[in-house]
Design goal:
Elements (H helix, E strand, L loop, with lengths): L2 H36 L4 E16 L5 E15 L6
Antiparallel strand pairs: 1-2
C-alpha cells in the first residue's frame, strides 16, 4: 500500500509543473497574438501545445484556438507565415 502515496508525491509536482508551464506558454503566445492584432495582422492559429490537437475552436474572426497533446510549447501562426 506504500505505492499509492509514492504516486501522489511524484504525480502532484508533475501535474503542477505541466499546468504552470501551460499557463506561462498561453500568456507568452497571447502577447504575440495581441500585438499582431494591434498591428492589423490576422492570426490563423493560436496553439498551446504541440502535436495532435485535443480541443479546437474557431472564433468569429476565423482564428483557430487549439490545445494540443504535448504541453511543452505553443505558437501563433499569422496570415502569410510559412507552414509550420
Amino acid at each position: 500500500m506504500d505505492f499509492f502515496p509514492f504516486i501522489n508525491v511524484i504525480l502532484h509536482p508533475i501535474v503542477s509543473f505541466v499546468v504552470s508551464l501551460s499557463i506561462i506558454v498561453f500568456v507568452h503566445e497571447y502577447g504575440h497574438y495581441i500585438v499582431g492584432k494591434w498591428t492589423g495582422i490576422k492570426a490563423d492559429i493560436f496553439s498551446v501545445g504541440m502535436g495532435p490537437v485535443i480541443l479546437s475552436r474557431v472564433d468569429k474572426n476565423g482564428t483557430i484556438w487549439q490545445l494540443a497533446a504535448i504541453p511543452f510549447g505553443g505558437f501563433v501562426k499569422f496570415k502569410g507565415d510559412a507552414n509550420i
